[in-house]
Amino acid sequence: MYLLHTTDLTLKGFYGEIPRYAILSHTWDREEATFQDVENRRKDGLENWKKVKGACARARRYGWDWIWIDSCCIDKSSSAELSENINSMYRLYANAIVCYVYLSDDPKYSRSHFQYSKWFTRGWTLQELIAPTASVFFLDRSWKEIGTRYSLRNIISAVTSVPVKLLEDGDLTKYSIAQKMSWAAFRKTTRREDRAYSLMGLFDICMPPIYGEGGDKAFMRLQQEIIKTSDDHSIFAW
């Protein structure tokens, strides 16, 4: 995996022992700093280079040398690396030392209004909400802390239908396939196939992403893989 150094903003690949790292959860805008942008130090004119710098500054403030950001820590020119990262995404969030959720669409979120962020409507952010085993901090557009997953658990549960108990203990084994599917029912993804791919971690499934196969075929493959490893018949009810 590639990690971004929070001081000099350079990428380094790790293939054995992984250092402790922070991780960023965010919604993508039209222009994100990519792997190639970071590698080539191409910053001029990139509006969302500020997001990368803000995330690094936040992590560095609390003593973390490394951070993982999906937009710039995956070399998407490599289909093999993209597939590997999609299949390991849930574990990446689960293994992080801290998770920062950056709500970029409103600079004035408060504890009582942050649930209106588009972050709660996106497909990939469901697993990013559930997967981390460490602290999850919600931050507004100015990188000011709104609260944590624990302190905001009642509001988050009301918005997402994810049970409060799961937000407290992270134990997915207590919930049926149909329940997990229901949490994702109204979420959206830019690419149709990602509606299925973004759920793989919730079901501990690995399968190669095939962009272009269409959303229905991707979801059918997901269901077939789940059936291979589970005798939970609620998948048929769903």
UniProtKB/TrEMBL annotation:
Q: Which Pfam families match?
A: HET
Its domain of life? Answer: Eukaryota
Q: Pinpoint the Heterokaryon incompatibility domain residues.
A: 21-108
- What InterPro entries does the annotation carry? HET (IPR010730)
Q: Coiled coil: which residue ranges? A: none
Could you tell me which PANTHER family the record lists for this protein?
Answer: HET DOMAIN-CONTAINING PROTEIN (PTHR10622)
Protein name per the record: HET-domain-containing protein
Q: Which organism is it from?
A: Dendrothele bispora (strain CBS 962.96)
